[in-house]
Amino acid sequence: MADFKSLDSTFSQAVAAKKIPGVVAMAATDKGVLYEGAFGQREIGKPAPMTLDTVVWIASMTKAITAAAAMQLVERGKLSLERPAAEVVSELGAARVLEGFDAQGKPRLRAPKRPMTLRHLLTHTAGFSYEIWSPDIARFQEVTGTPGITTCTNAALGTPLLFDPGDKWDYGINIDWVGKMVEAVSGQRLDRYLQDHILGPLGMKDTSFKLSPSQRERLSAVHGRGPDGALAPIEFGIPQEPEFHMGGGGLYGTVPDYMAFCRMILNGGTHHGTQVLQASTVDLMAQNHIGAVEIGALKTAMPPLSQDVEPFPGMSKKWGLSFLINTQAVPGGRSANSLAWAGLANTYFWIDRTKRVCGVFASQLLPFYDDAAIDLLGKFETSVYQNV
Fold first, then answer.
1. Which secondary-structure segment (H or E) carries 57?
2. From the candidates 19, 60, 134, 186, which is the catalytic residue?
3. Is there a catalytic annotation at residue 63?
4. Per the count of CB atoms within 10 A, which of 81, 154, 219, 349 is most buried?
5. In the annotation, is 369 catalytic?
């Protein structure tokens, strides 16, 4: 018999002490739901409680869903992991490598040494980065007037590469370009494709780029942690009539919805009798696709948005087709070669295909990798494994 009383009290104490505004957490095995709980408020200082159906910005947890869409199209022969991506989306042919800035402060750019592929984009080895962790990208945006990615404008995709495709790993706008590739070969806008082929079939009725009135009523505010540690709601929202749907971070959703996606991956591409991916495709997505390249720490260039990010320090980490892979078992937690990732406002998931368990944790709080959120995520994971 599972016993999560101590976990419930840990979550309750954290929100009572205002360490985090609110949290929804859920865990499941291949047999069914193991744990679900919601604690705290949707907006600090207001009465509406966090509930299982609270809608949150899942941010970069969008990436795995967009990757699954791309892999469906690989299965159908419409996309290839190896074909030059510019053959599908011609704008990618204009991507240049940033070599620095000249005496006048203008960017020095050169052509990449090899073409970028879908595999490079899915593994964050194409050369793209985010300004949150790259002062060079922030500087490029400033001197060229290039907008940030959350504007969802096509101009935001015009940032340069920091290295030649395949040379290194760096976290960036890659999956936004994958979304463009999905659109190019499917003939559908990304929102429509995802709805028809992933969200609809999995019953993820509360996951979308555009918020319905019902979703907006259940939406959690995003909070910021001030220098004194105090939390306050901030003005934040993804554009509701965007130039392009941000496949790398534009989705809103609920924890139970995302759990349906995780369980589909856990169960080899099928959930409740609905097949979304072939089992062999899920196996492929779960493998290391970056060879000897290592996942380094992300050093913050914008402390209000993210702290330094280094999961499992000291451990070799790899990347699958849009998942972080821990190469060693976590003491008291996930098995080696589990799949995971996260979203900027402190949302996290992991999928352990060895012990057949997955977990989703969602707060709505900046900066990313917040100490209090990471502490609770760790306690949640430990409690889940004690009960498996």
1. strand 56-57
2. 60
3. yes
4. 349
5. no
